[in-house]
Amino acid sequence: MEQNLAAIKAPIAMEIDEFEKKFRASMKSNVLLIDKIMSYIVKRKGKQMRPMFVFLSAGTVGKIKESTFRGASLIELLHTASLVHDDVVDDANYRRGFFSINALWKNKVAVLVGDYLLSRGLLLSVEYNDYAMLKIVSTAVKEMSEGELLQMEKARKLDIDEAVYYDIVRQKTASLIASCCATGASSVGADAHAIEKMRLFGEKVGMAFQIKDDLFDYGTKKIGKPLGIDIKEKKLTLPLIYALQRASWDEKRRIKNIVKNKSHKSAKVQEVIDFVKQSGGLDYAVKVMHQFADEAIEILNEFPDSAYRKSLASMVSFTILRDK
After folding, report:
1. I want to staple 194 with a disulfide (CB 3.0 to 4.6 A). Which of 4, 103, 190, 232 is the partner?
2. How many domains, the chain?
3. pTM of the prediction?
């Protein structure tokens, strides 16, 4: 999979290297503690899928320029801020195998670091009058918060149907990838129609991405997260929603009761996993995931052919074929 990503990255490899340097510079501070934490954040970077979406979208629509680097930095700064705050809220000690900021430096420092990253992103945009990009990314951050809160509100009663699930995913996960693609298009001066098309492409990819994550919970591949973690956290994902929709009233009540009250017991979690598999929940989720991926490719094919567009199409495949 890493080789796949390297091949996908090929048309923008130089830009990504340059971006890393610029991004590191945008996080600099005279305060030693902040500088130390920023170095730690840069060190634990993941697959870089967000900047890749920004640069590939920019290249597909126009010519990558300086503002594209600022757009990618803006996304990374605001998104990293939200992750640092998330870890505080979730009381999480690890992220991607590294200690979280709050685990190493306590909650107060983590919250202030999140605020610092947020302000760096805002200042970067204001300094260069990148208001269009700031609007795109700020809208995504707002939607991510709303999606998270909607999920929490619904989780209490476990009354999420398919339509509400798609709303949550659209806001919580898909809006970020959508904003990467829209930011890329906006950074090269694309018109409103092209920016919206790119945003919609990213949204479809984001929907497919989340459904793939849902499937990992059922052990379809060997992955980093433990089996049944969503069930233990009382999250209703697409395979389970589909299975519940087709269950009898008694069966529905029994499964919901397990999720609500017994999801700390491994044997009970396995019962839910078996119920979903037998009800065709996994097959249905796979079908919907491919549907979103196909719709993304359809939108992408409306843009002129190029190495950038080919790599974006490969990103769609990577999203649904990845094993973690």
Report:
1. 190
2. 1
3. 0.91
